[in-house]
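Why this split exists: single-chain examples teach little about how molecules sit against one another. For that reason, every record in the complexes split bundles all components of an assembly together and asks for one structure covering all of them. Below is a record exactly as it appears in the raw files.
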Amino acid sequence: MTSTATAPGSSGSLDADGLAARVQALLDDHDPATTDRIDFLRTRFDAGLAWVHYPEGLGGLGADPGLQPEVDVALAAAGAPDNRPHTNIIGLGMAAPSILRFGTPDQQRRWLRPLWTGEEIWCQLFSEPGAGSDLANVATSARPDGDGWVVNGQKVWTSLAHDATWAILVARTDPALPKHRGLTFFVCDMSAPGVDVRPLRQITGESEFNEVYLDDVRIPDDQRLGEVGQGWAVTQNTLMNERVAIGGGTIPRESGAIGELVKAWREHPERRTAGLHDQVLRFWVEAEAGRLTAERLGQQQAAGLPGPEGSGAKLTHARLNQQVSALELDLLGDEALRYGDYSARRPVLVAHADSPAGWRYLRAKGNSIEGGTSEIMRNIIAERVLGLPPEARADKDTPWKELPR
Amino acid sequence: MTAATTSHTATPRTGDLLYTEIEDDLRSSVRSLLDKRSSWDAVLARTESADTTDRELWRTLAGEVGCAALAVPEDLGGAGASWREVAVVAEELGRAVAPVPFLGSAGIAAALLLALGERELLAELASGELVVALAVPFGTVPGERPVTVELREGRLSGTVLGVADAAAAHVLLVPVGDALYAVGSKANGLARHEIVSLDMTRPLVDLVLDGTDARLIAQGPQVHDAVTDALRIGAVLLASEQLGLAERCLDMTVEYLLVRRQFGRVLGSFQALKHRLADLWVLITQARAVARYAAECAATGSPDLPVAAALAQAHCSVVVQQAAEECIQMHGGIGFTWEHPAHLFLKRAKSTAIALGTAERHRAALAGLVGIPGAQR
Ligand SMILES: Cc1cc2nc3c(=O)[nH]c(=O)nc-3n(C[C@H](O)[C@H](O)[C@H](O)COP(=O)(O)OP(=O)(O)OC[C@H]3O[C@@H](n4cnc5c(N)ncnc54)[C@H](O)[C@@H]3O)c2cc1C
């Protein structure tokens, strides 16, 4: 098994036993029962047990990423606190890999630790009213000004912008270049003057995402990630990681939507019908196939075999979540006709499983849109995996400022 | 995705879902042999010849590549490999729709003889000299007990319809009550009628036994369990065969759509077709994960094997049919002709989806295994 370790020296050879010893040492020195939650998480980061495949000093040990689940399981079993990944999925899944790949050592040291511990939440200022699937079309401008940049524009659908300390931001630095080439990638301080976050109410009633207006926002140049004009490369890397974060990973059998459906089935014998039975079984099979595919994707990555399965996993996850949650409402019948709470509110972050079935059904509608639509995932698979010709792109070589809008 | 779960059934260890280097090597030697000796036009010609089994090819596969000996322990002259390697060969044979008795002899019969500790037949089977087939209808679901043969004064009588790999078999293993008998293909009172099977590349035979001489191999309740286990191994291998065939259908369709032009552009540039192929690719990556999991469970004797086998058949049977159907549709008129291999693929795909139980039968089996009970009204 080849390691994708980036740290030099000792690290690449670190195996499961070595990691287990380090986990034990951490627990010996910092009893989770008596240590403050954040202190424990910081210490865990400093011990290289946050994401073991990251370099030493940045929360990792340059070990095989396939060993991370064993570390997580061992620490969870000892009652150690988790870093609540579902509140910071953008930070952990998208910002961190891009900071690791494109950030300077200073940027990495400054951002990665509080990101991982959850002390700082991240959001993603990508989409705009005129740039969704066609993300390279963003119009938000970043103009050089002294030792930094001045940013103006409007972003939309920005999840968790109201909770975020930092944002990853893609903006246009040269409108005279074709659209993919005039972009630059920044990290934006969400408390900077000129950042205005306004809630957008969504299908469930709550406001998980926002509009974000950027009005003469100053961003120092040391918050630029990657070279000027290289914003598209950084963005694509981010999006690729997003898909894997959404679709991949080790999960238990019967987790998520299928677990809820099967639970409702087991708990309500009076509602079972022959017609629904085979559908429940079909979905059980599909969910298990999806789970094993994600496991296989994880094994491929751990073995250093890059696989394009991330887009496929995202596609499947979205479809299944939608179909399974819809069937659960059918099964619940009259009970499903009661929604609970449509009042405008900020989301209360709880595990999906603890949310009402109606909420889960409605929220699942976003799964085939957020993080790239299912149609875009199919384009990616058809073109990058199967090698079919790309969609016609008439705007590819025209200066962005001359494109019709 | 959150980790919270009700976990009625605990999550078993997944094991290795990738291919090992040894498996990759095995695959490439089988594939290069099949490319040379079993191109699709040769397969088609074979289906229209007097002997529908490619015995020469089987001799090479068994004798030179060692495909019949893979799962047989070394002390019996086998290779001492595992069902994982057998499954890789099944993938390649499925890909080529090769007309050889691999599934029935090196798969199901070998598993049955292993379970019953029948050493002598196993050693001969491993050498490839002897083809052995289990005499049950090809549609039999693991666990089912088809009773059509009975014992009268030490001889067997009855009929068994639609038996796979029996055309080429030298020995038939016939379950009778709680016993298993071996019947030589030349035995008195045995008639084999080859039928026209939907899958032209896998001949089926109706067996008529009329006071046939037979040798008792085993007796007792363990026989039914061993037959069930053997059919389950068959289901695992069949899933890999389905995976290989589905991959072939996708590859061939992509190749064609990259050259066929209509409306002034290659067909593969039309998004409607690209998206269908992307969906098919996703299904096939899932089929691979599921088939590999089943093979891994079979190889390691995992207690999750019954679930894994039923899951593999419930999923791969659906995927392979869709792959073959899309292959025909996207080839247009040429795909509907006898001169193109797509019809061989569809016939193999559909019959594998019925063989060893339909997807629906396997879902019903899962219902019992994972605790999703049926309706009470
Ligand atoms: C719950 C949720 C959370 C989100 N969070 C964030 C966030 O935090 N940060 C952020 O930046 N964005 C976020 N988004 C935005 C999301 O990334 C975009 O909505 C998405 O990329 C689609 O863009 P769009 O809405 O402009 O739709 P459009 O691009 O206008 O698409 C409309 C329809 O046309 C289809 N379509 C578009 N182009 C093609 C094509 N080439 N071929 C075929 N079909 C096509 C689409 O698939 C879709 O069905 C979020 C969205 C949702 C729903």
